[in-house]
Amino acid sequence: MKTDKDSPLLLYRSLADSLNSLIEKETYRVGERIPSVRQMSKQQGVSISTVLQAYLLLENQGWIESRPQSGYYVRAMVRDHAPEPEISSPTKDPSQVSLHELAMMLMRDSTDPELVQLGAALPNPDYLPTEKINHALTKAARRHAVDGHKYIIPPGLEELRIQIAKRAVLSGSQISPSDVLITSGGLEAIDLCLHAVCHPGDIVAIESPMYFGTLQTLEVHGLRALEIPTHPRNGLNVEALSFAIQHNPVRAVIVISNFNNPLGSQMPDEKKRELVELLARHEIPLIENDVYGELYFGEKRPLVCKSFDKKGLVMLVSAFSKDISPGLRIGWVAAGRYKTELEWLKFTISASPPTLPQYAIADFIESGGYDHHLRRIRREYARNVELMSSAVIRYFPPGVRLTRPSGGFVLWVQLPENVDSLELYKKALASKITLAPGHVFSATNQYANFIRLNAAEFTYTTERSLERLGNIIKDMLGVAGLDAVV
Amino acid sequence: MKTDKDSPLLLYRSLADSLNSLIEKETYRVGERIPSVRQMSKQQGVSISTVLQAYLLLENQGWIESRPQSGYYVRAMVRDHAPEPEISSPTKDPSQVSLHELAMMLMRDSTDPELVQLGAALPNPDYLPTEKINHALTKAARRHAVDGHKYIIPPGLEELRIQIAKRAVLSGSQISPSDVLITSGGLEAIDLCLHAVCHPGDIVAIESPMYFGTLQTLEVHGLRALEIPTHPRNGLNVEALSFAIQHNPVRAVIVISNFNNPLGSQMPDEKKRELVELLARHEIPLIENDVYGELYFGEKRPLVCKSFDKKGLVMLVSAFSKDISPGLRIGWVAAGRYKTELEWLKFTISASPPTLPQYAIADFIESGGYDHHLRRIRREYARNVELMSSAVIRYFPPGVRLTRPSGGFVLWVQLPENVDSLELYKKALASKITLAPGHVFSATNQYANFIRLNAAEFTYTTERSLERLGNIIKDMLGVAGLDAVV
Q1: Do B328 and A125 touch (CB under 8 A)?
Q2: In what helix (H) or strand (E) does residue A373 lie, and over which residues does it extend?
Q3: Which of B200, B209, B420, B422 is surrounded by the most beta carbons within 10 Å?
Q4: Contacts of A130 in chain B (CB under 8 A)
């Protein structure tokens, strides 16, 4: 493990590396206690101080944690050994969104079968219940031969609304089937919410970084985005929002409280309550996008802000695009006091969502197929996110920070200050890899040295692509062979 | 046929009634020549002058027409014997649309299985190719097991865009597959067009009367509707539009050039050209809704305004909701110079239309199934419209005027001045019949004594409902047994 020739400086590093490797190989498994400082000193024949130094390094890297009166333990997630991105500090002035060109570019990429798709936040096609949902579609077409091709006017198919209302209990919200409006996907639901509560020029507070689709929806509506600092693990900073509300006429707030895209952050329940109460005091509507809510890695379904809503101000939006099928185009919104307005808007703008998919999804949920399917894919996504995190740590240069998502399937990576992610995007494309440059996650270009990686899939090709990406970044830093140096 | 006791005044009436009845029984068929005045005089033993009076009455009622040097012929359509509504003369000021409540009311009706549905302009479910399209859907789900559940980002599935571009040739327009953007139904396409070219407060010129869905879309966008006089058979009055443009900053024009809903009017080709040229001179975009274009009753597919478009100002919108399936939610737009903008808007607002239906419809068109299907339903709709027209004439009081649609499946009926169609709507509801009151076809309540009837279906129940409606109207006029008087 070590030799006498090692200088004291490198001795503790060498020890740390060895332990690191044992953790990676799961000789020491997550949650297990590693040998005490004293034991390790004895076992390895090194000084107490060398072991302490090694343990401190591993702790700083996130591999292990010390528990008072108990010792050192392997941390829950391997990826946790990399530092997380800093909490965001976007500019304080609302600004006009304009991301048109960048978004179109990413759009085009996402259809190119030649590219390794680390860009768009699309679910892994292998984790969609395609066979089962096709079966449900065929069954629906047979059973509802005539009705299956009629419009279903707002609020949408009752059978589906019943299933959605039943499941909502799991996330703490009490909504009835009549509270639910079925939409043509989650994006449309958010569009309708903004239609209902905002006028051009209004200010909408959002998390920063924020999924670029939402930024573009704001652009379409002529709205100004006010970006609120957001913690990479705990989500929206409610105190900062409170401050912002005091200084700006905020007309609405949009939040992905569970597994923000791109952060993967999850607001603690107490913060969700605070947020809802703050907005209730100011009578400001909250658009809560919970499209990733079912893809949690933990023990149980996280609550939604909607569960604390007493005034009907929270519009809870979700969709089946991430876990059943992007192509069926079925989402929904429980819009509280804006329900009637949204039903009318939905009818006016696009009449009704597709009919047969509503029957099929209702059937899939009711039969228990959805729950069974979710249990499986939650594990798969958790695993892929972990594998991709490890690969980023392995192949990207030191100094890189990355998120520790507690759900969903995207990773948010902070690169060294001087790496421009748009330049990286272009270089990666030349290597047949696409990714989402940080530029598109802010209306004020806060994240020029960030990238979002889609971790929905992790294969040999993914790993090789991440290695390639890492090398491109190292080239950009002008430090070839950098990892040999450290 | 007559007796000597008949006074001369009633003699010609009696002769006219007899001839009328022979025409209805098709003893004299559409297009046939009826006996000359001289022959009839001889045959019936009445004076030349009595026959002339009878023929004049029949001509005024629209049953027959005189052709110079040739004689009298049975007119092409039985329904043509009722007078058409007068050309519209809406107020000249743009006005804010607000039809919210009325539209919601009609929405709720349309789902009530207890009601006879003469209200919403829904296609006859029996005239949808449900079995064939379900087969195509199943086939698509099998063939495209993975891709069938992915997003298809704008402009949409290429196979479908190719089929649409090919068919466009029949309506005179030269569009390439890349000009076509697939949308979630026709309504969404119109919404996108308005998004692209208008800002809140702008003035949009529309036909009057106009389908209330469009009026509501204008309301959602905060746009002002400028209603242009429209001829019940020849559609939009281009001269009136030209005048309006000189006096108002018209930002866009919306037209249903083929089979306007509710008029069933068709603009003559020359008028379409004039319209496109007028707007080209003023650089005003035209949103052309051709959703009924395939449902023509004549010999060939009418042209679209788009076929005269040289500047890319015409946005041609259509959908498969009237002839394949309302529930699949597939429409499209060929947006000329606004193409790129619309693709971005579509992606931002609702990502993509449903995927499997795009494959299924492309397959249905390519296989020839669509053409075969259209040939059948055109005949059926023409027949139902004719039957309903006859029934309206039979059961409604005299003084009623109705349109002579050359396509589509709605009838527009002008009732006597003092009949309020909203009151009629309420009374009809009490008799389990729903219809569309004229109020919803204008932003300025021009059509209080009009109703739109959905003629997609004509059954025994339909006929009895029209008889009931006729009686209600007669009651409202306070002229019980009125038809006995005339």
Answers
A1: no
A2: helix A369-395
A3: B209
A4: 145-146, 148-149
Mean predicted lDDT score pLDDT of chain B: 89
What pLDDT is recorded for position A332?
98
**Co-location of A354 and A376 in the same domain:** no
Does A151 sit within 8 Å of B130, measured CB to CB? no
For the residues B380-409, what does the mean pLDDT come to? 95
* pLDDT, tens digit (0-9, with 9 covering 90-100), for A235-282: 999 999 999 999 999 999 999 999 999 999 999 999 999 999 999 999
Q: Which of B370, B404, B432 is the last residue of a domain?
A: B370
Q: State whether A307 and A189 are in the same domain.
A: yes
- From chain A, pick out residues whose CB is under 8 angstroms from the CB of B104: 343-344, 347
Rg of chain B over Cα atoms, rounded to whole angstroms, equals 24
Structure-model confidence comparison of residues B265 and B98, the more confident one:
B265
The CATH number of the domain where A440 resides is what?
3.90.1150.10
Best residue of B151, B153, B218, B291 to probe chain A, by most A CBs closer than 10 Å: B151
**Are B150 and A356 a contacting pair at CB < 8 A?**
no
Residue contact A325–B353, C-beta within 8 A: no
Check whether residue A67 and residue A190 sit in a common domain. no
Q: Do B155 and B182 meet the contact criterion of CB atoms below 8 Å apart? A: yes
- SS3 state of residue A437: strand
Question: Looking at A10-61, which runs of residues are DSSP E strands?
Answer: none
Q: What is the mean pLDDT of residues A363-388?
A: 96
Residues of A in contact with B100 (CB under 8 A): 344
Using a 10 angstrom Cβ sphere, with 0-12 exposed, 13-18 middle and 19 or more buried, the burial of residue B76 is exposed
Is residue A119 a part of any domain in this protein? no
Compare CB distances from B350 to A149, A188, A356 and report the shortest one's residue.
A188
- Residue A326 with chain B: CB contacts under 8 Å: 149-151, 351-352, 355
Establish if B457 belongs to a structural domain. no
Question: What is the ipTM score, two decimals?
Answer: 0.80
Q: Name the residue of chain B whose CA is nearest to A220's CA.
A: B345
A1 located within any domain: no
Give, in order, the Cα–Cα distances in Å from B263 to each of B64, B298, B411.
23, 16, 7
Domain match, A338 and A207 both: yes
**Domain co-membership, A363 together with A379:** no
Contacts of A395 (CB under 8 A, 6+ apart): A466, A467, A469, A470, A471
List Cβ neighbours of A226 (8 Å cut-off, separation of 6 or more). A94, A203, A204, A205, A206, A244, A248, A250
**Cross-chain Cβ contact A107/B138 below 8 Å:** no
- End of a domain among B370, B392, B427? B370
What letter would DSSP give residue B82?
A: S
Tell me if residue B242 falls in helix, strand or coil: helix
pLDDT, residue B6, reads 42
Residues of B in contact with A199 (CB under 8 A): 200
pLDDT at residue A443 in the model: 83
- To the nearest whole Å, the CA of B474 is away from the closest chain A CA by 34
Judgement on whether residues B148 and B15 belong to the same structural domain of the protein: no
pLDDT above 70 covers a percentage of chain B that reads 92
Report the CATH number that the domain containing residue B15 is assigned in CATH.
1.10.10.10
User: What tokens appear for A125 in the block?
Assistant: 């096609």
- CA-based nearest residue in chain A for residue B197: A220
In a domain, residue B3? The reply is no
Min distance A274 CA to chain B CA atoms (Å):
30
A216: closest chain B residue by CA: B348
d(CA B470, CA B480): 11
| Chain B residues with CB-CB distance to A213 below 8 A | 348, 351
Residue pLDDT, tens place only, B225-251: 999 999 999 999 999 999 999 999 999
- The total of structural domains in chain A comes to 3
CATH of the domain at A203: 3.40.640.10
The verdict on a CB contact (< 8 Å) between A191 and B350 is yes
All residues of chain B having their beta carbon less than 8 Å from the beta carbon of residue A185 are: 350-351
